[in-house]
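REQUEST FORM: STRUCTURE PREDICTION
Request ID: SP-0412
Submitted by: Lab K.M.
Chain count: 1
Length (residues): 129
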Amino acid sequence: QVQLVESGGASVQPGESLRLSCRASGFTLGHYSVAWFRQTPGKEREAVACIKGNGDGIRYADESQGRFTISRENAENTVYLQMTGLKPVDTAVYSCATDWLVLPDGINCPMKYYEYDLWGQGTQVTVAS
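STATUS: Completed
RESULT:
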């Protein structure tokens, strides 16, 4: 079955860290760019970071720069999002996505949700004291 599954979300206090995982099954994730998005009720889905297929090309949203790190272990078919210095504003459902229906070259790294066609179900991150 072709799918993405996120894990690692939790309830933490401000200043703490989390590492989210996005594991693919049914295909080779290393052939594709992968992006992390987050969404809160009533707001449009917001890009967090994107990583190209070979891991060399990385993009971050301005709000994520300096605190979040995206990486991948293609041998594990997994992309990670390391989050440090978490703030209440980071509270959201975090989802990973890939452009599975396009050519599997992984050379583009769009930061718009409509550029992606395969999504995980999301994992909840809550930051509160």
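NOTES: The mean pLDDT is 95.
Reviewed by: T.R.
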